[in-house]
Write a structure and sequence with these properties.
Layout lengths: L1 E8 L2 E7 L3 H10 L5 E13 L5 E21 L3 E9 L11 E5 L6 E5 L4 H12 L6 E7 L2 E7 L4 E8 L9 H20 L3 H4 L2 E6 L3 H15 L13 E5 L8 H5 L2 H8 L5 H4 L1 H18 L4 E3 L1 H9 L3 E7 H4 L4 H16 L3 E5 L4 H7 L4 E5 L32 H5 L3 H9 L13
Helix pairs in contact: 1-2, 9-13
Subcellular location: Cytoplasm
Family: Belongs to the eukaryotic release factor 1 family. Pelota subfamily.
Cofactor: a divalent metal cation
């Protein structure tokens, strides 16, 4: 993501950014909060009535100022970040207080104005500055007749494509089976070639039970030697790393990333994996937490109350916290955990903020989204007087719906807000060719 400009004074101000790749959507999702104001250009369906009374609709690109009401992020087979908000700057095409849903686009400028920039937001901005393009690793997890191609970025893991082909199990139809497997491998190669994926990634992990991975690799070698269009591209095969998995489905991804050979291979890539490949850091530290949990349960803590108690004793060596917890909607809760994070760092402890879109982040969310590895053994034999106090919000819960109020009353921009916009250079404009 490119940061074009930034002006933040005492936690109040704006940034102007351009998302350039898929991971940037996740960074934006974590930067945005309900109540922020965004300025961008967007498409809006405009309905006009002709002189004959017929209605004609057209899509028009317009400028909008939206006060954020709801933020949704999806990263399955398609990627989408949508921001629903109410218009707080009246225009010819959008009345004051009217709802509009903006779908974030790559290479489209967006201004984010916040009145509560905190350490969590600054940490995301630092990640954006350090981010390198094309640092992704791809994983093709397969078994006979089914394959899942995943992209593992610095902040997200998402399914790029699923390949399926019916393969007969009958030994008597061996020739037919071999032909079906060849067609399956061709489909897998086509998935790799889509959007020049094979050429761009730094490492391709091919995983399967049995010998499917080996057969696929041999298929690729034969194709690259025989076909003219692959002439001179044999070095691309050096990116491939074969590893065993228990299945050809996505639930094997965590097991693959925990494989010692995979971790060693990724460590040896040209990029410094510990700095830019956060997914591997998350996997390794979560593995360390579970190992300690098996060895000595008194030297780990998980759940809000236990972690807070361990922190009060100064016993936390490493804090594992999900971004779901760190970006809590309640500012008081968010500030509380940011304070804990800062105090642990100041005492020489380590803090890892896990992405909920990585398998490791999802696994941490199953343990309430917050855990810690401790310096010393701690007994948690205190009475729990407050029932359900440390329960976390269910994974995947959408932002709570807010009651609809009259747009003029709730979103009318007073002179103070207008003055802030002028101070921070967020002047309005109706011409979409203007620089946002």
């Amino acid at each position: 993501m490119k940061i074009l400009s930034k002006k933040i004074i005492k936690g109040v101000g704006f940034i102007k950014v351009v998302p350039e790749e898929d991971d940037d959507f996740w960074h934006l999702y974590n930067l945005l909060s309900v109540g922020d104001i965004i300025k961008t250009s967007t498409h809006r369906k405009i309905v006009k009535e002709s002189q004959t009374g017929t209605k004609v609709s057209e899509k028009r690109r317009i400028f909008v100022f939206l006060k954020v009401h709801e933020i949704n992020y999806w990263a399955d087979q398609y990627l989408l970040l949508s921001i629903k908000g109410r218009n707080c700057q009246e225009s010819h095409w959008l009345s004051l207080g009217q709802f509009h849903t903006y779908e974030v686009e790559l290479n489209q400028k967006i201004v984010i104005y916040k009145e509560n920039w905190d350490r969590f937001h600054y940490a995301i901005l630092d990640q954006i500055k350090q981010q390198q393009t094309l640092s992704e690793v791809a994983a093709f997890i397969m078994e006979e007749g089914v394959g899942h191609l995943c992209l593992i970025g610095s902040a997200t893991t998402r399914l790029k494509q699923k390949v399926e082909k019916q393969i007969t199990k009958k030994r008597s139809a061996n020739e037919q089976r071999e032909k079906a497997m060849e067609e399956f491998f061709k489909a897998c190669l086509a998935a790799l070639e889509q959007d020049s994926l094979f050429e761009q990634v730094k490492c391709l992990i091919v995983a399967s039970p049995g010998y499917v991975k080996d057969d696929f690799y041999q298929f690729l070698r034969n194709i690259f030697q025989k076909e003219e269009k692959y002439k001179g591209k044999q070095k691309m095969l050096d990116k491939i790393f074969l590893v065993r998995s228990s299945s050809g489905y996505l639930n094997s991804l965590m097991e693959i990333l925990q494989d010692q050979q995979v971790q060693q291979r990724l460590e040896n890539t040209k990029q410094n994996i510990r700095k830019i490949f956060r997914a591997m850091q998350e996997v390794m530290i979560l593995e360390k937490f579970f190992e300690q949990l098996r060895i000595d349960i008194t030297k780990v803590a998980y759940g809000k109350k236990d972690v807070e108690f361990a922190h009060s004793l100064g016993a936390i060596q490493t804090l594992l916290i999900s971004d779901k917890v760190a970006r809590a909607k309640d500012p008081k809760v968010r500030r509380q955990w940011l304070k804990v994070i800062e105090e642990i760092k100041n005492k020489g402890g380590e803090v890892f903020i896990f992405s909920s879109l990585h398998p490791s982040g999802k696994q941490l969310n199953n343990y309430t989204g917050i855990a810690a590895i401790l310096y010393v053994s701690v007994s948690f034999d205190y009475e729990d007087d407050d029932e359900d106090e440390d329960e976390q919000e269910p994974v995947g819960q959408q932002i709570h719906q807010q009651q609809h109020q009259h747009a003029q009353d709730e979103f009318k921009m007073d002179m103070v807000v207008q003055k802030k916009f002028e101070e921070f250079g967020m002047e309005d404009g109706d011409d979409v060719d203007d620089d946002i």
